[in-house]
Design a protein that fits this description.
Number of helices: 17
Helix content: 25-40%
Number of strands: 38
Shape: elongated
Distance between the termini: 36 Å
Largest sheet: 8 strands, antiparallel
Length: about 625
């Protein structure tokens, strides 16, 4: 018998390449409002709506009835099909094997590429013939909401023995059809008080009501297969489920060729889910994390190398750059795109645009293609000019060549939490990683100017910036770098941001000081799964990331562990003398989590305290990208 706790923590995700997705746990017990069979992106990759949350599945055999589905309401488990689950595997899509009497049944869930549709296949592997009854659960809501009692109504537009199309009271179409012998019959009811325990843990409303309006009856014998196709808005009559599954298998095999390292292969499949098409730019973009983030400038540029260059997806890489450069404003790329309109939702970032220089530099190093650098050289010079003269959000180069940004009410760095009027980590002034990125942007422009034989008008500024950085940021009392400096203050918080002064292509410290910084980071911040954002000895340290929004956001950068920071950490170790064998050994706990609890991906964050439970988004772009990059570079 499968123990429920074995599969509750493992969350899978299937995407369609345009922002839509299907997600649940390995037990198929939905624990989030974001779990469901069909979440469609109506304005790719945003305007995401949940339409089908699950299917109640009952198998009848000579031995009796067996559930395959699992469901929890306010009183506990109302369906516990996980007891009949004998195996779960993720191959770019989930594959479940169930035992019902002497029958073995395999279930697969996948999404045809570029379609707001989900296909569920059932195949009997062995045993006596079975009867299968399927009852889909419908809703119509934005992904960050819950369906309240009576809020969803379905009206039949058309129907047949094997297909039905409904329109909701919000004027959205939900379609269903199946391939194989079977029959649709009316079955209208409401499922009240469905309970999502992970939303409850986050201090959010955790209940909703779902609607069922039909059930499907079919029979299967050994070797027979039955396909159920669910779609939203666009027609699904042209979807051949068998051919679509074959096409998806071929696509996934191309991403991960036979013989690939299992962990690297899993991360490449995870990387694929973040790279999506954006309708507004007619190009590609990167979703920052599933299940709730849209495309963020900072996250995209940090994840750029791991998602797009390590995987050899250079055409998509160009498209991603076009999406953000095409929305440049006052020398800044967008901080985020809006989840509803799809338009740039704000430019309040001091680092995303600087990471753009790093992305272009790494693109050149991978491809040796000078065309993008040549095409964007004048634009990049204009970005430098805007920073020197001053742009939005008090971002301006000081007389000493260092870059200052923000005021106490802004959140411009990656430590960007703001809850109503509370900016948790304002870091206004001259943050250490912002200035490491600024120096690297200047050096990268000097590099491009040389190889392109172009004039860069700020050719000597990097010399001043480097001298001022070394004078301003070194903290002799703690043998590390200040986190933020200003005219009248030095923030001596020990944070991981200082690593960027070592890990970026143009380091800002000599080897002796670099090793001291690394020693401090290892002693105060290192965990096997990422770097903590504050030492446990700091009075502001919060080791648990739980509870309602104020509690969670208060801990977000005050002790919480971030896996993406392992990227700059291991880069720094390598630069300052550690062997590849040592780094590979240190990566082993991450490998174990990817093959187990993390279900082939890497989460956004983990708690600061042991055992470092994963929190936040269960699959995060820059986490996946940086772990994939370092495992590909150092982990073999």
């Amino acid at each position: 018998m499968t123990v429920l706790s074995d599969y509750l923590k493992r969350e899978f995700l299937v995407s369609n390449g345009i922002g839509g997705f299907c997600s649940s746990t390995a037990s198929m017990l939905n624990r989030r409002r974001y779990h469901g069979l069909l979440c469609a992106a109506l304005n790719p990759p945003v305007e995401r709506r949940m339409f089908v949350t699950g299917i109640s599945e009952t198998v009848s055999t000579k031995s009796g009835e067996f559930l395959l589905s699992s469901l929890k309401n306010v009183n506990g488990l109302s369906e516990s099909g996980f007891k009949n689950l004998i195996s779960f595997d993720f191959q770019g899509y989930p594959v479940f094997t169930f035992k019902a009497g002497n029958a073995l049944l395999e279930k697969r869930i996948f999404m045809p590429r570029d379609r707001n549709a989900t296909v569920v296949s059932y195949r009997q592997l062995s045993g006596d013939p079975i009867k299968l009854r399927l009852i889909p659960s419908f809703t119509d809501r934005e992904i960050h909401q819950n369906s309240l009692p009576g809020s969803v109504k379905l009206d039949l537009l058309s129907g047949s023995d094997c297909a039905a199309t409904f329109i909701t009271n919000l004027s959205h179409k939900i379609q269903l059809r199946f391939c194989g012998p079977g029959l649709i019959e009316p079955y209208e009811t409401r499922i009240s008080n469905v309970f999502y325990d992970l939303e409850d843990e986050r201090g959010l409303f955790a209940y909703e009501e779902l609607v069922t309006c039909l059930r499907i009856n079919t029979e299967l014998s050994k070797g027979q297969e039955f396909y159920l196709i669910l779609g939203a808005e666009e027609p699904i009559a042209d979807i051949d489920p068998s051919a679509s599954l074959h096409a998806e298998d071929l696509r996934l095999q191309k991403l991960v060729p036979e013989g690939s390292d299992r962990i690297t292969g899993s991360l490449k499949l995870a990387a694929d889910t973040f790279i999506v098409k954006r309708r507004s730019t007619k190009s590609y973009t990167v979703l920052a994390g599933y299940p709730w983030f849209t495309d963020w400038g900072r996250d995209t540029m940090i994840a750029f190398e791991g998602l797009l260059l390590v995987t050899g997806r250079f055409s998509e890489a160009e498209g991603v750059l076009l999406t953000f450069i095409g929305n440049l404003k006052n020398g800044l790329i967008p901080n985020v795109f809006d989840d509803n309109s799809g338009n740039p939702g704000g430019y309040n970032t001091a680092d995303a645009t600087l990471w753009l220089f790093h992305a272009l530099y790494r693109y050149f190093q991978y491809t040796l293609d000078q065309s993008l650098a040549a095409e964007y050289f004048d634009l990049l010079t204009g970005i430098i000019r805007a920073h020197v003269k001053g742009t939005d959000y008090w971002i301006k180069v000081d007389d000493n060549g260092l870059l200052a940004a923000g005021n106490p009410g802004t959140q411009l760095t990656w430590m960007d939490v703001k809850v109503e009027g509370w900016t948790v980590t304002p870091r206004c002034g001259k943050p250490v990683e912002i200035n490491a990125l600024w120096y690297n942007a200047l050096k990268i422009m000097e590099f491009f100017a040389e190889i392109l034989n172009r004039r860069f008008e700020y050719q000597s500024l990097s010399v001043k910036t480097l001298s001022s950085f070394q004078a301003d940021f070194w903290n002799p009392a703690l043998n590390c770098l200040y986190d933020v400096t200003g005219d009248n203050f030095r923030d001596d918080s020990i944070r991981p941001n200082q690593l960027l002064a070592l890990s970026l292509p143009y380091p800002l410290l000599p080897a002796d000081k670099g090793r001291l910084i690394l020693n401090s980071v290892i002693e105060n911040l290192y965990t096997p799964f990422g770097l903590s954002t504050l030492p446990q000895a700091d009075p502001r340290y919060i080791g648990k990331y739980r509870g309602e929004r104020w509690s969670r956001d208060g801990a977000y950068h005050q002790g919480t562990v971030w896996p993406w920071l392992l990227g700059p950490f291991y880069d720094s170790l390598k630069k300052f003398g550690d062997t590849q064998g040592k780094i590979s050994s240190m990566l082993e706990p991450v490998r174990e989590m990817i093959s187990g609890t993390w279900c082939g991906t890497v989460p956004e964050i983990a708690e600061g305290e042991w055992p470092h439970e994963s929190r936040g988004c269960f699959s995060q772009a820059w986490s996946v990208a940086e772990i994939l990059r370092i495992i590909s570079s150092y982990g073999k």
